[in-house]
Amino acid sequence: MNAEERERSRLKRLADKTKNTARVSTAIEMQPTIDDEVASDWRAELLSSLLNIAPDAFERLSQRLLREAGFVKVEVRGKTGDGGIDGVGVLRVNLVSFQVYFQCKRWKGSVGSKDIRDFRGALQGRADKGLFITTGNFTSQASEEATRDGAIAIDLIDGERLCDLLKQYELGVKTEMVEKVIVSADWFKGL
User: Fold this and answer.
1) Mind giving me the DSSP string for 118-187?
2) Which of 24, 27, 49, 127 could be bridged to 101 by S-S, CB 3.0 to 4.6 A?
């Protein structure tokens, strides 16, 4: 009788352990989905906030972002009739400096190749490089135009990358780590 009771207890513990393992694996499988939703939620909230600020405030935010990223002498020049140039900054890489002009667009939609060509036209004879920052996204044609051979290179920062950069440099975005403690009552039953 004692051996039978021990065997039943062993089988019951094994069954409980299997149930707990199934619960844990289900929770682990669900975690990436929850993280993806949280990630898109903060980006959507941030982009909504950016779309609600004034155009000159967005230009000043871009200026601040570039300074945080290591640019020096960053100036906002965006005014009516700015010729498609919102600002300029100098990026120093080791012994070399590059004059970088930037354009900022608070758009919900897509920036097309025409916008990139217009910006490049404004850069001719002025800059070593261009930077186009938007809250929207870039069409594939715009991306191709930005890296066209034989033309001034233009780097593109879309809304998603902009959100990541603002988070990285903690500009209007704060990250908090949350600790969650889970007590397993089933674990104590098995003692």
Assistant:
1) HHHHHHTTT-SEEEEEESSEE-HHHHHHHT-TTS--EEEE-HHHHHHHHHHTTSS------------HHH
2) 127
Burial class (CB in 10 A: 0-12, 13-18, 19+), 145: buried
Distances (CA, A) of 187 to 26, 55, 143, 183: 18, 57, 55, 9
Dist CA 3 CA 125 (whole Å): 91
Cβ atoms of 88 and 100 within 8 Å: the answer is yes
And the tokens for 117? 């060509």
Which range has the worst mean pLDDT, 51-55, 78-82, 127-131, 149-153? 78-82
1-34: b (≥16 Cβ within 10 Å) or e: eeeeeeeeeeeeeeeeeeeeeeeeeeeeeeeeee
The highest-confidence range among 22-31, 72-81, 109-118, by mean pLDDT, is: 109-118
The residue extents of the domains of the chain are 2-49+178-189, 55-168
Q: CATH class for domain 55-168?
A: alpha beta
Residue type, 90: V
Q: Tokens in use for 174? A: 């704060």
CA distance 59 to 105: 9
Mean pLDDT of the chain: 85
